[in-house]
Design a protein that fits this description.
Layout (H helix, E strand, L loop, with lengths): L1 H34 L10 E6 L27 E3 L11 E2 L5 E3 H16 L5 E5 L4 H11 L17 E6 L8 H9 L5 E3 L6 H4 L7 E4 L4 H8 L3 H11 L1 E6 L2 E9 L4 E6 L3 E6 L4 E8 L3
Parallel strand pairs: 3-5
Antiparallel strand pairs: 1-11, 2-4, 5-6, 6-8, 7-8, 9-10, 10-13, 12-13
């Protein structure tokens, strides 16, 4: 009898040992599940960059007029002689072999000329482009204040502006002028000194003077009938402006200039920076869909 009781006790102890590890395993699984985060860590979509103070004077939207001269930092480094870069002058003529322009602006202008030619409008001519300070000063002395601006105060001193003519007749009477009025904004160009805006620009109507400001700004300015002065004031007042142009969504923000200016920029979206040459930087973000 005692032997039977001893054997029964031994079997019960063995049975308990075979169950306990399984109970411990269940507890461990529950604890491990509890330790797992309920949500994944959100992806960082922005990067913070430090903007140098020189940026206020650089970019496609810098304002140059009688009150705001060009800063040396604002002159682009890609100024080229068009005559010596014949691959850039397909589809239009040059008044002479000294005309210079920003290469990036010349590329956009060439694309515009290519499309105009498809529509049978192909007698364009550039009569003036970039001028350095000495050339502008000479022009100012020769022509006087009624026809020229002092060195540093002309848009021709930044390489983004050009005087466009026609080999047929004056540009305001030629098919080329009509085509530009209708289509230039599609390629990032604006008529810089339009009619009935002299009080704002300080310059009389010049149907030949076009300025590159880039997209989407040229199209917004045309839609709202803004000069560059009016557009920059609008952005400064709005602070943050969202619009859709040709199916593309853009966010345009004005950031006041400061000693240690930092900006949050998207990692996976295209953005551009431009100073206004006065007191801030415009950030243009093309937002991805989805």
């Amino acid at each position: 009898m005692k032997k039977w009781l001893v054997c029964l006790s031994f079997l019960l102890l063995m049975g308990c040992e075979s169950v306990l590890p399984k109970q411990n395993n269940d507890i461990n699984v529950q604890e491990n599940t509890k330790d797992q985060p309920s949500e994944s860590v959100p992806e960082v979509n922005h990067d913070t960059i430090l903007i140098p103070k020189e940026q206020v004077h650089k970019g496609n939207l810098v304002l140059v007029n009688k009150e705001h001269p060009i800063h040396t930092d604002g002159i682009p480094t890609d100024i080229v002689n068009l005559y010596k870069n014949k691959e850039l002058i397909q589809g239009y003529a040059l008044l002479d072999n000294t005309i210079q322009l920003s290469r990036s602006v010349a590329l956009n202008f060439g694309e515009m000329m290519h499309d105009a030619d498809k529509e049978g409008v192909n007698h364009f001519m550039i009569s003036s482009g970039y001028r350095d300070a000495s050339e502008q000063e000479k022009l100012y002395r020769d022509k006087g204040a009624d026809y020229a601006l002092p060195a540093g105060y002309s848009e021709h001193n930044i390489g983004f502006s050009l005087d466009i003519g026609s080999t047929l007749k004056p540009i305001d009477q030629a098919p080329e002028g009509e085509w530009l009025q209708k289509n230039a904004s599609e390629y990032g160009f604006i008529l810089r000194y339009p009619k009935n805006k002299t009080e704002i620009t300080g310059i009389k109507f010049e149907p030949w003077h076009f300025r590159y400001v880039g997209l989407p700004h040229s199209k917004i300015m045309k839609e709202k009938n803004f000069t560059l002065e009016e557009y920059l004031d609008f952005l400064k007042e709005q602070k943050n402006f969202i619009t859709t142009i040709d199916g593309e969504k853009y966010e345009i923000s004005f950031v006041p200039a400061s000693k240690n200016m930092t900006l949050q920029v998207p990692i996976h979206q295209h953005y551009e920076l431009s100073g206004n040459n006065v007191d801030g930087v415009i950030v243009t973000i093309r937002q991805n869909e989805g």
